[in-house]
Amino acid sequence: MQKIILSALFLALGACAGVSSQSASSTPVPPDRVYASYPKFFTGAYVTVRRDASPQEIGIGCENELYIDNIRSFTIMPGEYVTFFLTDGKHVLKVDTGRGSCQGRPSSEEVNVSNGISQEYKIFSPPGDTLRLFRIM
């Protein structure tokens, strides 16, 4: 009976855990579009920013530039993600359109990084509207 209760407890806890939206179709940003490095420090956590894949006829040429604390850090294309380490404290993530055929207004999000608590954000870019970062984990 204890095994059944323990198994049910582990199953319930596993169902409540956050599930990353990283799928097999997501690919990391290639090194040639990484402009800054964020080495692991004593305190801090990993942050992931991703873009969903676009339908093939829409968004192919769109680049999004990710700035971290006003430093151009990454160019993210549809279907890509980037994971980086930030130290404890407040940081500003800004997303802007880069070169390419898409238009949009930049936006920024202030994030508070706590030691060991990873965060994940998704870039949302409605046509002709402000780019947005949504926390998904």
Strand content: 35-45%
For the largest sheet, list the strands in their spatial order. 1-5-2-8-9
Average per-residue pLDDT, rounded, comes to: 79
Summed up, the helix count is 1
Gyration radius (Cα, Å) is: 17 Å
Tell me about this structure.
The longest helix is centred in the N-terminal third of the chain and has 15 residues, at 2-16. The strands form two sheets. A five-stranded mixed beta sheet has the order 1-5-2-8-9, with no helix packed on it. It is mostly beta strands and 137 residues long. The chain is globular, with a radius of gyration of 17 Å. It has one helix at 2-16; strands at 27-28, 44-51, 64-68, 71-76, 80-87, 89-97, 107-113, 119-124, 132-135. It is built from one helix and nine strands; from the N terminus they run αβββββββββ.
Summarize the structure.
The protein has 137 residues and is mainly β.
Could you give the topology of this structure?
Blueprint: H1 2-16, E1 27-28, E2 44-51, E3 64-68, E4 71-76, E5 80-87, E6 89-97, E7 107-113, E8 119-124, E9 132-135
Parallel strand pairs: 1-5, 2-8
Antiparallel strand pairs: 2-5, 3-4, 3-6, 6-7, 8-9
Name the descriptors.
5-stranded mixed beta sheet, 4-stranded antiparallel beta sheet, mainly beta, disordered N terminus, 137 residues
